[in-house]
Amino acid sequence: MSGGINVAILGATGAVGQELLQLLATRQFPLKNLKLLASPRSAGTTINYSGEELEVEAVAEDSFQDVDLVLASAGSSTSKTWAAKAVAAGAVVIDNSSAFRMNPEVPLVVPEINPEAAAKHQGIIANPNCTTILMGVAIYPLHQVQPIKRVVVSTYQSASGAGARAMEEVKTQSQAILAGETPQPEILPYPLAFNLFPHNSPLNEQGYCEEEMKMINETRKIFNAPQLSLSATCVRVPVLRAHSEAINLEFEQPFAVQQARDIIAQAKGVKLVEDWQANYFPMPIDATGKDEVLVGRIRQDLSHPCGLELWLCGDQIRKGAALNAIQIAELLLQENWLKTTNSKVVV
Amino acid sequence: MSGGINVAILGATGAVGQELLQLLATRQFPLKNLKLLASPRSAGTTINYSGEELEVEAVAEDSFQDVDLVLASAGSSTSKTWAAKAVAAGAVVIDNSSAFRMNPEVPLVVPEINPEAAAKHQGIIANPNCTTILMGVAIYPLHQVQPIKRVVVSTYQSASGAGARAMEEVKTQSQAILAGETPQPEILPYPLAFNLFPHNSPLNEQGYCEEEMKMINETRKIFNAPQLSLSATCVRVPVLRAHSEAINLEFEQPFAVQQARDIIAQAKGVKLVEDWQANYFPMPIDATGKDEVLVGRIRQDLSHPCGLELWLCGDQIRKGAALNAIQIAELLLQENWLKTTNSKVVV
């Protein structure tokens, strides 16, 4: 590791942390030094990075000395505790948690959508919610051509969105059910194997769960469209990895289906996957491990003259989290936006 | 078996046929004689019905002599072949296939919605598509209070909707994947274990699949609302039994959420399942084997002032097929509508 910048990964042992490491290597991110940080519980373990065994350190007050960039994916409370300290030590933090996303002084960035927002950072840049990123990259190219008026989305979210242990639980639960047993859920609140349930994040007074409100509020912020109407129904399904979404879009004027297909086919970060003859469209197993969000079944909405229906699958750990964070980091380097001379603690 | 009427089940060995038999027994349907019919392939096997071993007969020209009622669930082509012959022999046919559903001379009946339509039958009454029935019983009570203007629905359909063999395939596929193998799908077109895919029924030129068009066209017919706007996205998920649906409703005027909850709580055929404190709502495993469609998460749609969101799970073999057919039969008996003096062959 020579040249480049000093990077720390906070939450290196988690699912997103592991994906971040893999992407830093495969994308040949210009690293000078790489520091792996985690909770004291995970400290001391080693992780192989491009042939080097790196020791995971417990995050501490002096962890951010000489660190240029922190990629944080250790959850909201960890980010709230450490992000300001990292910024105070001179680092820029790209935070994968929800801690700062709706803070008006923190840019919420999807590089395919609002790269310019990253320029205004004051030390922290937030990485959006996974389902929000996947939907955003798929529908923003259409929004640019004709502003979207209303979005109604239903999600099909995989177990891995609830963490690696939830993914394991679905496997062991499936095994037990196939053996005729009745396993008790431990990580997830209800059985997920051969079952599904509405997303179990906390509900607000209107009956929307946090995941749904993230899709609504974060999309408005990323699109810089505070008046955009959105509704979401988020559902956890027994898929191991990659989320799917059925999206109904309403425009002011009719949007020609062929034009929509052409736009998606040429847009960055998405891939048009439609074989109408074979009845083959995006599936989670095909989206797993892919950078692009797979989009298909683009149809004229038969219930509204100005509506379009579309279907997507995307890897929520990759583009929905780690890849988007790395792309933000690459953007900062490319545009020379890493300097934080105007940094202030935003929390 | 004494008193009552002579019933024949066409397709007695299938999943819906089995459910029909169970419901005839548990609901103490007034049977005089019960005849089990199936394809020559299944003929000769015996099925236990309330302690009696009944032999399955191959359906033939003389099968419908002295039969008052045929419950047909052997698929569209079988119904097309035999329904008219049964009617000519003096029987009334309640047909679970799609063969006659959109025939303007054939009533398409959900007893909680349009029982009066059954009175006009000319020998054949069609049982609607399963996802259509489940949605219909859930939203019609609201439609009665204030007409629904537009429906946008996304489905989460279980493997059993594609038949008992598809359900078995999901199990064996899951087992194989858990053992590290890569099984090839045989019944379903793509792997369904730990995966999902858009419903694989044939697509029309507008990109809607047959299942989606059934939801659109059959709902209009059952509701007697030809102008009702509907769009649907149907998705097959790795759930064994019971379908789920995320439904977005638009009305002409705002619909108070509490009123909607009260209506659903009192409506026939549905059960309000909402524990907002415990974040507990309808799930397929809880809907399995239940007569009622479980409805919950009734919310004001944040994207539209006249919108409501709701979520349902229902057993598509029970209320989505067999139970609805039995309820139609019970209605015919109760209203003395079994006579087919005006019968004519409608095909």
UniProtKB/TrEMBL annotation, chains A, B:
Homodimer. Residues 6-121 form the Semialdehyde dehydrogenase NAD-binding domain. The keyword Zinc does not apply. Phosphate binds at residue 101. The active site is at 130 (acyl-thioester intermediate), 243 (proton acceptor). Keywords: Amino-acid biosynthesis, Diaminopimelate biosynthesis, Lysine biosynthesis, Methionine biosynthesis, NADP, Oxidoreductase, Threonine biosynthesis. It comes from Stanieria cyanosphaera (strain ATCC 29371 / PCC 7437). NADP(+) binds at residues 13-16, 41-42, 160-161, 183, 316. Substrate binds at residues 157, 210, 236. This is Aspartate-semialdehyde dehydrogenase. Pathway: Amino-acid biosynthesis; L-methionine biosynthesis via de novo pathway; L-homoserine from L-aspartate: step 2/3; Amino-acid biosynthesis; L-lysine biosynthesis via DAP pathway; (S)-tetrahydrodipicolinate from L-aspartate: step 2/4; Amino-acid biosynthesis; L-threonine biosynthesis; L-threonine from L-aspartate: step 2/5. It catalyses: L-aspartate 4-semialdehyde + phosphate + NADP(+) = 4-phospho-L-aspartate + NADPH + H(+). Its EC number is 1.2.1.11. It comes from the Bacteria. Belongs to the aspartate-semialdehyde dehydrogenase family.
